[in-house]
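Tip: read the tokens left to right.
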């Protein structure tokens, strides 16, 4: 480890500098692996816009010591609106962040730990040659023994390696609009510390919509299971035309419009021949809420820990089970149960409202694991 090799040869190549890739690269470099991150975009606070609500639990903000001056807004509560007019409130501290700023913060941690970043250098192809992967990138070729595929839901790495893709019922198509307005207007219409989620079978059959306030911007989002959509723009507009939403968006200006996919079911494999699927590339996302940032970060860490354990015990044939055991032990078992529960929750408006009323007082994982919907 860490010995000087051919300039483009590394122990580990991480493809993608999102939260999953950056944490994998940080943990790898800290533990002495020569690590290279290939990222197709520029990683900067003004870098590529990433469609994301950017909601984080406060525990995560504290755990990574994320600076308050980089937070878009501190949140104290969640308002859950059903379109038939019923409302539910959930208390809980969190933060809403801009992903370019957040991703840059995590990327800097990886670089400080010794990882090498190749930005604006996308993976184009990957082949497995005698225990080494060869990666063709836009600029140059690279080699590594291990590959972390952290390049998101449409992972080119896994596509080129011919891993199976997601089922259509496991993909949510989202549309995000960033609407610029004033802080006072946000405070008066949405509250100064509240995010809003909107549910209802005739609004969105399997999914939900949201208004997430940042300092002077409202992130307007909508997501529905892709195979149930007939006209996404029209369905998105149906949400935006709700009186509550119109009121919040009056006099605001569109700054960004972006569609993006969220995987809400796992890939059928998460590991094969020294390649690990991390974060969205593996579908490691909460199937009910679409929350993926913390799971991407944890899966990046567990992938590297699996390599360390396999090497230490001289059991490289066990890397996949070490990885999946760590995921399962920590959260994957719950995400799998949530994937099953999701079908029931979104089956009828009655079920949805029962879930929302339970969610006021319980974590969604408690509702699912304690089978509170059945009581
Ligand atoms: C609309 C929307 C709202 C969301 N809201 C939330 C939320 O509020 N809270 C939450 O926790 N989660 C949310 N999520 C989910 C969250 O965004 C993802 O789960 C998270 O970004 C996954 O991180 P990742 O590192 O796996 O992948 P990504 O963040 O997708 O990062 C992948 C990286 O790989 C790079 N890349 C892609 N292809 C290549 C290539 N060929 N070569 C090199 N690099 C490449 C990309 O440029 C990107 O930087 C939301 C998602 C969407 C779409």
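Filled-in amino acids:
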């Amino acid at each position: 480890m860490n010995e000087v090799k051919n300039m483009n040869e590394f122990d580990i190549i991480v493809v993608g500098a999102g939260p999953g890739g950056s944490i994998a690269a940080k943990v790898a470099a800290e533990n002495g692996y020569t690590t290279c991150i290939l990222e197709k975009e520029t990683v900067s606070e003004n870098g590529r816009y990433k469609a994301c609500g950017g909601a984080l639990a406060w525990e995560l903000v504290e755990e990574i010591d994320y600076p308050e001056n980089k937070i878009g807004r501190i949140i104290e509560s969640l308002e859950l609106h059903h379109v038939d007019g019923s409302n539910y409130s959930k208390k809980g501290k969190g933060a809403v962040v801009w992903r370019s700023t957040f991703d840059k913060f995590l990327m800097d941690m990886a670089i400080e730990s010794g990882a090498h970043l190749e930005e604006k250098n996308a993976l184009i192809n990957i082949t497995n040659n005698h225990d080494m992967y060869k990666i063709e990138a836009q600029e140059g070729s690279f080699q590594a023994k291990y590959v972390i595929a952290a390049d998101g839901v449409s992972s080119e790495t896994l596509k080129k390696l011919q891993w199976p893709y997601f089922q259509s019922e496991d993909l949510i198509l989202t549309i995000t609009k960033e609407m610029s307005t004033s802080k006072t207007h946000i405070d008066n219409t949405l509250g100064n510390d509240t995010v809003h989620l909107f549910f209802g079978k005739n609004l969105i059959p399997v999914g939900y919509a949201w208004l997430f306030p940042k300092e002077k911007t409202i992130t307007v989002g909508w997501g529905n299971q892709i195979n149930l959509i007939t006209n996404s723009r029209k369905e998105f507009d149906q949400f935006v035309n709700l009186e509550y939403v119109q009121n919040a968006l009056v006099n605001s200006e569109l700054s960004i419009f972006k569609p993006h996919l969220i995987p809400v079911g796992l890939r059928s494999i998460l590991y094969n021949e020294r390649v690990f699927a991390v974060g969205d590339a593996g579908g490691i996302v909460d199937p009910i809420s679409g929350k993926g940032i913390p799971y991407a970060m944890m899966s990046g860490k567990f992938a590297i820990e699996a390599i360390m354990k396999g090497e230490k015990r001289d059991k490289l044939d066990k890397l996949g089970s070490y990885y999946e055991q760590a995921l399962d032990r920590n959260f994957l078992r719950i995400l799998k149960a949530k994937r099953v529960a999701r079908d029931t929750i979104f089956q009828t408006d009655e079920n949805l409202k029962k879930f929302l009323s339970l969610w006021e007082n319980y974590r969604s994982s408690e509702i699912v694991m304690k089978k509170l919907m059945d009581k």
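The chain has a mean pLDDT of 95. The domain at 9-46+101-166+267-343 is CATH 3.50.50.60 (FAD/NAD(P)-binding domain).
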